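Changelog-adjacent note: as of this version, every example in the card shows the full chain rather than a window. The one below runs 69 residues end to end.
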Amino acid sequence: MKEVVIKVEGMMCDGCKSGVEKALNAQSGVREAVVDLKAGTAAVKFDEAAVTPEQLRAAVEDVGYDASV
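Full-length structure tokens:
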């Protein structure tokens, strides 16, 4: 199990936080994704054999936010 912290820009509310968490948790191999709205980050625990940090970043961008790993 590996963990990565993704910087997420553009989140303004709890709805934004929930959307990012939902998108990350829907990815194959993700065990847990926790978004910190105030810090603008998403901490993701995942199986690196199933998903890459770049795929996680792309999942965040797919729901409309800028992200970097």
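Structural remarks: The helical segments are 14-25, 53-62.
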